Every structure is written in structure tokens, then in C-alpha cells.
Amino acid sequence: MVRPSPRVLDGIGTVARLGLAAVWFVSGAIKAADLNQAYIAVQAYDLLPHGVVSVVAAAVPFLEIALGVLLLLGLGTRLVAVLSVVVLVAFIIAISQAWARGLTIDCGCFGGGGQVAAGQTAYPQEIARDIGFMVLAGWLIVRPHSLLSMDGWLTKRPAVVGED
């Protein structure tokens, strides 16, 4: 059986890292640009006390931006991937409970959020999308090596015999 070279695996890791970085950065930036809408989105889940909603709505966008920047730089990749899974699991739980309780809300994952018409929810697609993002993070947890990363420059991985 032919095994992919470490360079190919590093390339896959780079795509996973940069893809997840883009997701986090874009979703956080959209929310940070309109914190009032982020508040409406968090409040729509009807999970948290009023005072906590404000804190979560203000913190989540900047957490997402930080995760995106760290992944873009490739700094602390494995740890950031683990944190990404934790955040994504929390998002999946929030979406699932909204679905189970019959709430009709937009997830607010990429801006927007709040109440929507009964036929306008997309809970299965939102959960599937987040699971897809978890697959990217999972790759980075198992194999955090990637090209053009600060982790690689800081650790200077030894060359593998036969690696180009």
C-alpha cells in the first residue's frame, strides 16, 4: 500500500488549518461588526440569564477571531484545534436544544440570528456543517503539522528520510 508522503500530509493539514482559520475569522468578524445582532442571536437560544447573554454575545466574536488568527499563523495549532472542537460542541448543543424545544431561530453562526419563520430553520444543515468543521479540527489534533506555520518554524521538525 502506498502511503502519502509527510509533505502531502502537511499540505492536507495546511488546507484544514487555513480553512478552519477562515471560518473562525469570518464568523467572528461578522459578529464583531454588529454586537447588537450578536446579542439578539445569543438571546434567541433562551438558555442563559440576561446578564450572561451580554457577556457571551460580546466574547464569542472575539474568541472566534482569536482562534482564526492563531490558526492562520499556525501557532499552537493542536491546542487551538482542541479549543475549536470544544466551541463547536457547545454550538451543536445549543442548536440541538433549540431544535428539540421547537424554537424557530437562525443560529446566528455567521451573523444574523434571532427569530425566523417556522419553515426557515436549518438545524440539520447547521449541525452537519459544524461536524464538518470538527473533522478539520480533528485532523489538526491528530496531525497538527502543516506548511507555513509558526509551529513548524518554532519547533524545526527534523527532516524525514526520503522527504522532498
From TrEMBL:
A cellular component annotation (GO) from this entry: membrane
Pfam name, any one: MauE
InterPro entries (alphabetical): Methylamine_util_MauE
Transmembrane segments: 12-30, 50-73, 80-100
Signal sequence segment: none
Every Methylamine utilisation protein MauE domain range: 12-142
Protein name: DoxX family membrane protein
